[in-house]
Amino acid sequence: MAPSSEKQQQEKKACIIDGKAIAQTIRSEITTEVKLLSEKYGMVPGLAVVLVGSRKDSQSYVNLKRKACVEVGIKSFNVDIPEQVSEAELIAKVHELNANPDVHGILVQLPLPSHMVEENVMNEISIEKDVDGLHPMNIGKLAMKGRDPLFQPCGPKACLELLSRSGISVKGKRAVVIGRSNIVGLPVSLLLLKADATVTIINSHTPGLESIIREADIVISAAGKAHLNATFLISDVCMAYVVLLLLLSERVDENKTYNIGMAYSKHKPSIKGDWIKPGAAVIDVGTNAVADPSHRTGYRPVGDVDFDQVCEVAGWVTPVPGGVGPMTIAMLLRNTFDGAKRKMEQ
After folding, report:
1. 2: number of Cβ within 10 Å
2. Which is it for strands 15-16 and 75-81: parallel, antiparallel or unpaired?
3. In 3D, which of 179, 174, 227 has the Cα closest to residue 201?
4. Whole domain around residue 52: which residue ranges?
5. Could you report the per-residue pLDDT of 172-223, keeping only the tens digit for each?
6. Options 18, 109, 194, 306, the catalytic residue
7. Is 65 considered catalytic here?
8. Which of 132, 217, 304, 338 is catalytic?
9. Which reactions appear under catalytic activity for this entry (predicted)?
């Protein structure tokens, strides 16, 4: 290889997939579509976000969703319920929202208080209003060949949308998914299968994960902890509050002091650059925090991959924050709009 070619190869960096910019484009598209739908049917989509109790992290996340609705013209139904309410009373409220023709999507913010069984409540949401895409019927259809769910889960849908809008074809590609959670790992694997990828799922018991990852054209990491090899201690639940603000809204007020307690992180990034196939696409769904005294909050958000190393090898990579996080709420808005349009056109 000529010296100039070697230099070009060394200087080559991965294309950074700007999830924040793509999410804003999608929000603009939805805003226009909502206006057209309103002009045609005299109605706008409606999303009911149910918040039980007063957890600060849940309140922050719910406020982000409600604000996003307002920004695109979706009507937000704010349902705030005291923590001491019974499970039966909460289910009755869900039934009420199921019957409300102005509500096209229902989202019950998790976690619920300890005296409730989340599955009992979530199963009562009408499949036609399950904009989180996690109802057993929707997941079941996602898993079946020739069947299509009414809604796809927002996080996994965000991953596929990022690939699509970045011009990355999935068909015929070898994809590796790290993690098998019900929220991301499992459903994103099913979406990749539906898109004709060859999919391998890595879990905590998988041997030789480095060699498996090196074969992948597409890597989606959703390990669910602060790097696979991390030791992470959170001494205050308010940490989750700030993580959500950073990763989802990315509008943290740098002049505000957040009570996040004490955090200690001792980690080594799990996915190194030499684990990645040259030119591969890497979607980092990891949402973790590591101590960083240089930040006003005392920590910084990170993903599951060693971003700097991976950028030297991969063809595309999502940052944390600014990748999958903003896209997840955009997909919630998209699901709500699609549910409303489907209902109005019936």
Report:
1. 7
2. unpaired
3. 179
4. 43-125
5. 999 999 999 999 999 999 999 999 999 999 998 999 999 999 999 999 999 8
6. 109
7. yes
8. 132
9. (6R)-5,10-methenyltetrahydrofolate + H2O = (6R)-10-formyltetrahydrofolate + H(+)
253 catalytically annotated: no
Instruction: Report the distance separating Cα 40 and Cα 220, nearest Å.
Output: 40
Cβ atoms within 10 Å, residue 342: 13
CA distances from 80 to 32, 52, 198 (A): 29, 6, 43
Q: Is 109 a catalytic residue?
A: yes
Residue 254 CB neighbours (<10 A): 7
Question: What's the CATH number where 216 sits?
Answer: 3.40.50.720
Tokens of 41: 């049917």
Pair 217, 315 in one domain = yes
Judgement on whether residues 82 and 222 belong to the same structural domain of the protein: no
> Quick one: 168 and 300 in the same domain?
yes
Single-letter residue type at 170: V
Q: Tell me what the pLDDT averaged over the chain comes to.
A: 86
Sign of CA dihedral 132, 135, 136, 140: negative
For the chain, the straight-line distance linking the first and the last C-alpha, in angstroms and rounded, comes to 62
